[in-house]
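To close the section, here is one more complete example, presented without commentary so you can practise reading it yourself. The ligand is magnesium ion.
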Amino acid sequence: DFRPRGAREVRQAGHAFLEMKRRIERNMEQRTTMLNGVSHDLRTILTRFKLSLVFLEQTPEVEDLKRDVDEMSRMLEGYLAFARGEGGDAGEQAVETDLRQLLEEVQSDAERQGHVTELEIVGDPMITVRPDAFRRLLFNLVGNAARHGDQIEITANHETRWLVLHVDDDGPGIPSEMREEVFKPFVRLDEARNQDEGGSGLGLAIARDVARSHGGDIVLGDSPLGGLRATVRLPA
Ligand SMILES: Nc1ncnc2c1ncn2[C@@H]1O[C@H](COP(=O)(O)OP(=O)(O)OP(=O)(O)O)[C@@H](O)[C@H]1O
Ligand SMILES: [Mg+2]
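Output:
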């Protein structure tokens, strides 16, 4: 309930601020409405697609279509989560979380996909994070390692008040001049290399959002395994 008063210039500035506030509010409202509409409409159609496919004869072509539809659903969820800003803050509460349990989940997921995945945790395995957001960060980083490398190593150190976590792989890595670029939404380096492997280029943007919203960050570097090393640092 701010009322502009005082000298004319001050009042004008005050009114300009109020107008700006109203515009921002309208904008956010429209964005939310649009996102809800898009997600509802597209999800409905995708569900219809999936149902129709079940009733067709299960030829290899239909199997392909099914995979594409699944891929589309996954990408859609990714875009929407990013647009809603869920990488950062979806109102989730930070709670004491067992890092070991989380990492073992990520590890067995990577192993199911056929990757040798080593895990080492030094120090206190209990950390205070928003668990769903943090899990998304881990899955994004380890998912990247799995997509680009064969061997994966996850090492966490929580001996101080900071958690330092490395995700290493033996893939091709990322040239140093591109290591900031790839954090931008929709940036992908390997468009040509493996186009069919999906991916929207949002994983690192979301992971960094999560890290920063916890008061930390993610940086990329060289891995001792020969590929990429993603390092997460968080006060935890
Ligand atoms: N471990 C890695 N090794 C080599 N290149 C990587 C690695 N991780 C990411 N990249 C490169 O950075 C790009 C951006 O990664 P990001 O996770 O943001 O998107 P994505 O993996 O392509 O798609 P999404 O994560 O949305 O499924 C990737 O397309 C790839 O070119
Ligand atoms: Mg990714």
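Once you have examined the tokens, check your reading against these statements. The chain has two domains: 8-83, 95-235. The chain has a mean pLDDT of 90.
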